[in-house]
Amino acid sequence: MKASGVVIDGLQYSAWSRTIFEQMHEGGLNAVHVTLAYHENTRETLTRFGEWNNRFEAYPDLIRPVYAPEDIHKAKEEGRVGIIFGAQNCSPIEDEIRLVEVMRRLGLMIMQLTYNNQSLLACGCYEDEDSGLTRFGKQVVREMNRVGMVIDMSHSAERSTLEAIDYSQQSVIISHANPSHFHPALRNKSDKVIDAIAANEGLVGFSLYPFHLKNGPQCTLDDFCDMVVWTGERLGIDRIGLGSDLCQAQPQSVLEWMRTGRWSKVMDYGEGSSSNAGWPDALSWFQDNSDFPTIARALAQRGFSTEELAKIMGGNWLDLLTRVASPQSAAAVDEPVP
What we know:
Blueprint: E1 8-12, H1 18-26, E2 31-37, H2 42-58, E3 63-66, H3 70-78, E4 81-87, H4 98-106, E5 108-112, H5 135-147, E6 150-152, H6 158-167, E7 172-174, H7 191-199, E8 203-206, H8 221-235, E9 240-242, H9 252-260, H10 292-301, H11 306-324
Parallel strand pairs: 1-2, 2-4, 3-4, 4-5, 5-6, 6-7, 7-8, 8-9
């Protein structure tokens, strides 16, 4: 069963290939938010853009870039998958606020304020103390609002997330994490946070990364659907979507780069246990992009209507990007408080 409308996955970082892009088509995807950078600085991020330009040249029958929300509609009309660029850290802007607009004009549509650690903007979810938004962070939040760059707090700590939601004049997202009500991973979000996202008219994208799910790789499709049903009832059907966090075919070296970057000489276990030092086994019911229809069928069997299913599978993502990922007029964004 394929949901009507658009189908959008809110986060992936796979070892990109024709095979994976073909699986996206098999799964009925119209757009995917891909990670452009984890710890890359400005210069390295430019290289990542260049690598994607190479992919668009190599696979023009399968993928196209998304620079504005309307490009998602174009991708569907063309029979291609739209690639939405995002950064899982603020490292691409380094310490210069002007680079927010530069990156957005290059195509960076979504940016996290932190990736697990304290950043120049806010605090990550693995730190012992959460100091909240920094002075620079408040400036960047308002600049992201102005230029149409979506604020993502997936890897941020609680106080920082709540302050970003409160300070932003645009909706904020959790692109790939789950309610801690179902599994208490450090990455997952409290009821207070997901309620704040709902009040902010933002979006929670359900992660399919096994370490974020009840019983890890043994999480059942029924358990996943239970989480979707509970969250939809709590937040409202318009506030939920998918953010699979699919990291298909990536080697161990990529996991180590994600976890340690340049800041540590030893493996960062993050969740407090060496049991997640490697990639988890895949879920039996979600192995790759071709399995998105499996989720749609299961949710339909749980009683979601065709209209509700269309929202969960991508319509809510399209709505949020349409509202947030376009530049605002000067009058629409107040001057940030120093």
